[in-house]
Amino acid sequence: MSGRYDVIVIGGGIFGCAVAWSLARRGVGRVLVLERAEIGSQSTSRAASVLTCVAGHAAKSAIFQETWDVMPALEQELGEPLGVHEVGSLHVARSEVNKRALDGQVALAAEVGEVAVEWEPERARERVRWLDVREGDRSLFLPRAGYVDSYLFATAYARAARARGVELRTGAEVHELRLEAGRVTGVRADIGELEAEWVVNCAGPWAGVLSAQVGCHLPMAPVRSQYWITEERGEFDTEQPMLFLPDVPAYTRAEVGGLLFGLRGGVSPARDPRALPSDLGALEFSEDPEGWDTLAAAGGVFSSFFPLLESVGLAHYVSGPSTYTPDSDFILGACDGVEGYLVATGCCGSGIAASGGVGRALAELIVEGVSSLDLSRFSPDRFGELDAFDPEWLARCAATRAAKSVC
């Protein structure tokens, strides 16, 4: 295969598919997505798929808000619902430090135009039947939050993009970025030499390997994220709010009659992206491979909020690499000194929620030369010169995941 395209997108995960759809919506003609496995089958399919609007800071929250804004348009184009559960998020804090930290959520919600409502303990217990909320706990509810099936969401972007003329090629591995006189002019893939005006790297945990070929070391590392899904129980209502417990720390949401919950581990192993298998199904984490150490370490505090933990059965354990940066911000935009090349990665565990905003931002950079979203905090070069494969750098990114607050 050979040819010339306006844009080649590397990676058919949710970022790549969202970028392709956003480009097509803005009238970009020849767009090609290259995915070496199947659409949405790698890190996207392992996501907990939590959708939020208020997190981190205003620039990050705006990216999340855009996802909520584009979902109705995507549903209209496809003529079918995405299956979004807009159940809201409930943040429950017990310690004084975490109760005070919720003030930041209230202030950020007000800054970005979202609603945050204080709930009394009895209301929290009424909405989440399994939750042990005590007098003195602080509960904050944000209505515009929920969850979605990440694989179905990614493939929805892909189907809508294809309907607008985007070419999707699976089983197509990219081996090399072609660099000529400081400009990326295309890729060398196993399906041929392909030229493009723009190349967008959305290769997830593998993005850094390709980017290093053109001298752009991305400030991230693939770090293990993990969650569990319980057996089905009547207490786990599918429309109960998602729950964030910074004292554990943990998050929960309903999942097909059970409860999905994620816990922050004291140790979050990182991987050299050059050593990742081409299919994440073959990836094994030798450190605490079934997550029992993490569960045991957090279980005492978690069970004080979730007494059923002592008796409920666990049906599934899911782990996989999320790409973490030291500041928990995305990597979006151009690398200094490299033209015709953009990057969208560094999801920091919130790629599904960010997908709509990421798609819009990258498409605007290509079509208009600037994004209407503030991308100043997400520059690929913000940490200066670095070696993305150095063990100390990998450990630095892993420490960010280990210290992450779910609040």
Description:
The protein is of the alpha/beta class and 407 residues long. The chain has two domains: 3-80 and 149-220 and 326-395, FAD/NAD(P)-binding domain (3-Layer(bba) Sandwich); 89-142 and 222-321, D-Amino Acid Oxidase, subunit A, domain 2 (D-Amino Acid Oxidase, Chain A, domain 2, 2-Layer Sandwich). 29% of the residues lie in helices and 26% in strands. It has helices at 14-25, 58-78, 96-111, 121-127, 150-163, 207-212, 292-305, 351-368, 391-402, and strands at 3-10, 31-35, 50-51, 89-93, 117-119, 138-142, 146-147, 167-170, 174-180, 183-189, 192-201, 221-230, 242-245, 250-255, 258-263, 314-324, 331-334, 341-345. The strands form three sheets. Strands 1, 2, 8, 9, 10, 11, 17 and 18 form an eight-stranded mixed β-sheet that branches. Strand 17 (331-334) and strand 18 (341-345) form a beta hairpin. The N and C termini lie far apart (48 Å). The model has no long low-confidence stretch (mean pLDDT 95).
